[in-house]
Design goal:
It comes from Chitinophaga rupis. With 296 residues, the chain is α/β, with parallel strands linked by helices. Helix content is 38%, strand content 20%. The chain is globular, with a radius of gyration of 20 Å.
């Protein structure tokens, strides 16, 4: 029987972010038994639900302790890395599509990824780009640290412009061991500041993944009842009340998205565009399927 997908607007009614993360990952794990997904960093062995008669030696007791459910680990791949989650919390992340802001989707996605990395035994760090500053929780792998990350994610308030380069020092002082950097952003930039940061991070030769969040109303230019839009960070307004404008917007948007994707791929940065109306467990499965194909 198929499992209902986890609509992000529905999840927004759950105030406990750790519960959101467990709910999303439980749905995600339910889909892993249909397709084995592996990849460097956030490496997943194949799981399936325990069935009577299964060899008890292959029960994943850590998974049971965390989810209160029995899973069989069908293959094993040793991995222990530092996963650093970077979140753009500048004011443009307050953009809404219906009841859900990009910032909300970012916090749910980050919480799910942090919980998943924790279950694998990876160290997790959190870095928040907000109002010109950089908040950081260096990578650790203990339950208390995961709780701290959930707390910070719950309390993020998108504000101001993107972080000033002067604050980046903490990003370049990580350990020398292998790291995975996951950057969640809407890629809104005024002077190439995000592209510059990504180039600098790519030079560290760690693995870098970018989740580019975009509202469905941005993709479709569907702002019913409005004739002008205001930039959340600059305050500038633009008219959207003509068919010609919508056609030009759509063409430029597609060119921009294609150029962004190519620019990042040329720097060996894994890129994934996500519309904020997409269910989170589906977004994770699609991401890992795409990632697996790119690694084979």
């Amino acid at each position: 029987m198929s499992r209902p997908l986890l609509d992000p607007a529905t999840l927004s009614a759950i105030k406990d972010l750790s519960l959101v993360a467990r709910t999303v990952i439980d749905g995600f794990m339910a889909g892993l038994n249909r397709s084995q997904v592996k990849g460097t960093g956030l490496e997943f062995s194949q799981y399936r639900s325990y069935q009577p008669g299964d060899d008890l030696r292959w029960l994943d007791w850590k998974m049971y302790a965390r989810s209160d459910r029995y899973y069989i680990r069908e293959s094993e791949m040793e991995t222990s890395i530092s996963v650093r989650i970077l979140i753009d919390a500048s004011n443009s992340m307050n953009h809404r599509d219906g009841p859900l802001a990009k910032m909300d989707y970012a916090r749910y996605l980050a919480a799910a990824l942090a919980y998943l990395a924790y279950m694998q035994g990876d160290a997790i760090g959190l870095y928040i780009f907000q109002d010109g500053q950089l908040f950081s929780l260096p990578s650790r792998k203990d339950p208390q640290h995961l709780s701290r990350i959930f707390y910070q994610l719950e309390n993020i308030q998108a504000a101001g412009k993107f972080t000033e380069p002067l604050q980046y020092k903490q990003l370049f002082t990580g350990e020398r061991r292998k790291e995975l950097l996951i950057f969640i952003t809407d890629m809104y930039q005024q002077q190439g500041e995000i592209s510059g940061l990504l180039s600098s991070l790519a030079a560290l030769q760690h693995e870098l993944i970018v989740f580019h969040l975009i509202g469905k109303n941005e993709l479709d230019l569907d702002f019913a009842g409005y004739t002008t839009l205001q930039d959340l960070e600059t305050g500038k307004t633009v008219s959207i009340n003509s068919a010609e404008m919508k056609k030009a917007y759509t063409e430029k948007l597609q060119q921009y998205l294609a150029a962004t994707r190519m620019q990042l791929l040329e720097q060996q940065i894994f890129y994934r565009l996500i519309s904020t109306d997409q269910p989170l467990d589906k977004a994770l499965r699609d991401f890992l399927n795409q990632r697996q194909k790119s690694l084979t």
